[in-house]
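queue> pop job 88
queue> type: inverse folding (structure -> sequence)
queue> payload:
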């Protein structure tokens, strides 16, 4: 497989001047791109050491991890945070398979392209489901997984509101209408947007990073629509059966399917633990990786 990795500061700066791109937090590190079979993917990288790869869910991007990555990088890890084509990305992938298994393969292709081994994957929300699917298909480069509040089993998407997104995405023009409605801050805080996902308000610059790409780009909206239309609980149910998911009951069910798993509750947080409790999450990830490394010794 041909792979090309690019440091894209110049491209990013030009895009900013033209008003075509939203800057990601500098806390995520150096901005790069990599050419995968599915298309070009942008990611951020910070630190050196054993690799930790952060995967986000629907309608957010690498900025979700902006307060987590610095702490883990400073603890001696190479942190990689890609922008997946889930609606808040800026590089469309019009020819990619964006079904849940297709995006799971994209994550695996990213690990292959960067030649990463002994990877710790940290996933949140929708990305937890995608990670579970990936583990049943191409787990070779993954040593351990941290699943923070995420979709699993019957909850892909979770009820009550988000479960209606796949059929709604099939209605012509509705995706455009929804993303345009998200211009308003009060709409962004509704339960159908991010209102039930955090205890604390998300900073305006992060909200703009999340919502502006789909508002500005028809190609990004097309990627978003293709992914949403393909979401179905059959994928997470099959993944759970194949593994050797998040009200707490689902977390315990999923832990039962994974070897050497443990469940940890993070107080004072909702689905977006990286937004509500980044310091606590970073501590748990570092402790988990160290414990795994000691167990292998």
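queue> result:
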């Amino acid at each position: 497989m041909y792979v090309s990795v690019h440091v894209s500061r110049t491209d990013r700066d030009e895009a900013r001047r033209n008003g075509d791109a939203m800057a990601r937090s500098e806390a995520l590190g150096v901005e790069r791109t990599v050419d995968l079979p599915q298309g070009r993917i942008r990611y951020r990288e910070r630190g050196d050491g054993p690799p930790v790869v952060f995967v986000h869910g629907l309608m957010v991007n690498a900025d979700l991890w902006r307060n987590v990555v610095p702490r883990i990088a400073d603890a001696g890890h190479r942190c990689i945070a890609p922008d997946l084509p889930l609606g808040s990305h800026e590089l469309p992938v019009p020819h990619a398979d964006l079904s849940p298994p297709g995006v799971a393969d994209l994550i695996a292709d990213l690990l292959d392209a960067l030649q990463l081994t002994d990877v710790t994957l940290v996933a949140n929300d929708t990305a937890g489901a995608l990670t579970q699917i990936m583990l049943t298909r191409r787990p070779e480069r993954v040593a351990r997984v941290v699943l923070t509040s995420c979709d699993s089993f019957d909850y892909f998407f979770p009820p009550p509101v988000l479960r209606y997104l796949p059929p709604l995405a099939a209605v012509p023009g509705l995706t455009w209408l929804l993303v345009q409605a998200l211009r308003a801050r009060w709409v962004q805080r509704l339960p159908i947007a991010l209102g039930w996902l955090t205890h604390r308000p998300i900073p305006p610059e992060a909200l703009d990073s999340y919502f502006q790409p789909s508002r500005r780009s028809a190609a990004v909206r097309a990627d978003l629509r293709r992914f949403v239309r393909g979401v179905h609980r059959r994928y997470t149910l099959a993944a759970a059966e194949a593994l050797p998911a998040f009200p707490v009951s689902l977390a315990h069910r999923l832990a039962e399917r994974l070897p050497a798993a443990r469940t940890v509750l993070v107080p004072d947080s909702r689905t977006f633990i990286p937004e509500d409790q980044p310091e606590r999450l970073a501590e748990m990830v570092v402790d988990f990786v160290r414990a795994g490394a000691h167990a292998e010794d």
